[in-house]
TrEMBL record:
Protein keywords: Ion transport, Membrane, Transmembrane, Transmembrane helix, Transport
InterPro entries reported in the protein's UniProt record: Cation/H_exchanger_TM (IPR006153), CPA2_transporter (IPR050794), Na+/solute_symporter_sf (IPR038770)
Membrane topology of the entry: Multi-pass membrane protein
A GO MF label: antiporter activity
Protein name (Swiss-Prot/TrEMBL): Kef-type K+ transport system membrane component KefB
Stretches assigned to the Cation/H+ exchanger transmembrane domain: 16-392
Organism in which the protein naturally occurs: Planomonospora venezuelensis
Membrane-spanning parts: 62-81, 93-116, 128-148, 160-183, 195-214, 226-244, 279-297, 309-330, 373-391
One Pfam family here: Na_H_Exchanger
One cellular component (GO) term of this entry: membrane
Amino acid sequence: MDLLLLDLVIVLAAARLLGAAARRIGQPPVVGEILAGILLGPTLLGPFLGDALFGPEMKPPLQALANVGLVLFMFVVGLELDQKLVRGKGRIAVTVALGSTVLPFVLGCGLALAIAGDHVGGEKTLSFVLFMGAAMAATAFPVLARILTDRGMQRITLGGLSLAAAAVIDVLAWTVLAVVVAIAGTGDAEGQWKVALALPYALVMFLVVRPLLARLVPAREKAGRLTPGLLSLVLIGLIGSAWATEWMHVHFIFGAFLFGAVMPREGAEQLIHEILERLEQLAVLLLLPMFFVVAGLNVNLRELDLSSLGTLAAILAVAIGGKLLGSYAAARTQGVPGRQSWALATLLNTRGLTEIVILTVGLQKGVLDNELYSLMVVMALVTTGMTGPLLRRIYPDRRIARDIAEAERAALGETAAHRVLAVVPAPPAGQGPLVDLASVLARAASPSEVALVHLRPYPNGRLEVGTGLSSELAEMAGTLQELETLAAGARARGSVARVVSRFAADVAAELPEVTAGARPDLLVLPADMPGHAAVRTAAECRVVTVLPPGRPDTADAGTAGAGTGPVAVHAGRGGSDAAVHVALVLALLDDRPLVVTGGGRTGALVRRLAGLGVAVTAGEVPPGALVVAPDTAAAPAGAHLLVRAEQDADPVDWAAAVAALRAVPAPATRS
């Protein structure tokens, strides 16, 4: 007994310390808890000290405590499984889930057939092959939910879609695992007929037990709280359900999960909250870490050799490649953009908790040997650990912040206008072409608005109350009148327009702050504007730089933009998607032909746009054309507009872009 208590102290302390360390470096705590078990086992402590602390006589009581924690955990998973997730996302979630399950399952079965001779006997081959497929296809729904919550992604479409898909994947994986356990656990006639009771048992749980459990809701409301008697009924039902499935030779995790799934949902929010509040503390703080540490104790990396490393490489390739490619391909078939598809695939590659549970079942049922179990645990750690860093690279925090802001506006019933911010230099009276350019670009989206920003420097010397101040205020009033005249021209082209003007002690220093505060979707500003470089660098949105007409190698961008000549765009360079899209907007909305010049993908792009009905050709820049180019290190000769893509830009969907531009109504008047 003294050794058991000492083991509990060591296990809990190691789990808490390494779990906290994992959290500090941006990893789920389960990664640290499994590592704690590996470090406490024979891998680090060796056979002597490891056996002295966690010898064969200590593992059964530790495993028993771990199994109790697993029962509570699987009940919590079933209880927290939001069945509305699948209904809310529908066809996309199911399609992504199938792609994320079928490809890794098939590849896992193929790998299992290749290595079965080294790890299992002939009578276990079928269950081993199916088990490896299920293990490769699993996604850790609880860990995924924790990752999304930590980043606030549960409030955006990508987060909801990944949770919905993971819920479907869980159902598919547990179904296959139930078949595997049934095959592996039926060695006699008695076992066979017990397994046949599993389906009727599930029907009884949904059709009989679920309505009975619904009576807990009025009982809790009558008592005003979750009484010990009500909690005892829940625990009795939970443990009884776990026992029943274990007796049927279907693992106890299914009974626990099923009991959580049939708990009442409608009007039971307070009841569920109080049950979770009571059980999660016991399960998450004490018993569940015990389960993961005990799982790690069974890992012995000392026994692995070079052939094991080859098997590990194959396991990682199948597990990661199958998940990423299957999820990505399925998402793309449903029209999910490329960046979001890769982010979704990365999220569904998370394994963690669910994978360790599956692997533990396989080890207990004799489907996995110790060597393969150790390799699969390493795979679970790698796939779980890579999710956070890879997701930050694919879908950075600033993208998530924009998505969250859009979701919050949608929740409030607000429709955010597409904002084009035009920085107007002095004197405003001569900037009509620049404002015309901004208003055309604004019409590409609906609803939209044009904001004209003008910063007027303070006069030299100190302002005094009196004539000097009155003179400056008069000049500011005149500037505002000129800006309002420009805004009227933008309104005539069909855009909502507003004016922002103020004094600035240092225009170059204050302009980045003003533009960032406006949070535009597109920024238009002259290249010779004070502070242009700082604004361009700091802006997260798309930036259109208007080159000055005084350059010997370019014409007046505004003059060219106001005409009817062609629009030419340089393609095949970095950021050219954004430049081509701006040129496409100007061409289609002003009824001008489009010429694509440059190398690389020019031909393919022209064929793509021509197939969508755009009047486009490939060739040299014609005389009198408005020339648009990507904003790269060196602007090409003759360019009028330089376009820098927004940060973390997605590739342009040309079919959708052309369709949206053709749907833009013509303005009532033209300036």
